[in-house]
Design brief:
about 210 residues, mainly alpha, 7 helices, about 80% helix
Length: about 210
Amino acid sequence: MYTQTSTEYMPSVLRTFALSLAIAFLGTMAGVYVPPSLFLPLAILEFVMILAAVFFRRKKAISYSFLYIFTFISGITLYPIVAYYAATAGANVVIMAFATTTVVFSGISIYAAKSKRNFSFLGGFLLAALLALVAISLFNIFFPLSTTGMLAYSFIGVVIFSGYVLFDVSRMKHHGVRAEEVPLMALSLYLDFINLFVSILRILGILNSRD
């Protein structure tokens, strides 16, 4: 039963995920016109929506509208990061980071989908690692990391979010996806992709900085 459910709805998850990325791209383009004073409130709203999505995860459902509104806002809040590295390291670095993220994400997804091994056991470890990453990011606000420290932090981020791609795709394959879970699973993949992209962008931005 689970295998049939997974086979039936995984393509829907991937299509919804792809559409979410497209909407986020539109949000990033719209970010050009957003006043700087609004980025912090939007980032707070984005965080609140993530918490809401975590709550909805227990109910196994969020709406498509919630997903697309979130990804658009996420695209807007991504703009300052992309603009910063485009200015300090060059637009080619941003394009390279996106291409690299796409290759890594696709490779891991295909491996997880084809592998007979169930990687759901990674959930607890990944959550602990993610919380540690969040703690370091909060520490960085008050005590900025050195360039080497930020580089190490970013490499750890790549490992963690690559692990989440493996975990989420494996979970869909082995535990199935019901119709009402499609937006939530697409959101999980979207967050994996975006966080992986930001980590890779930070690495390439540091290595190619013109400053």
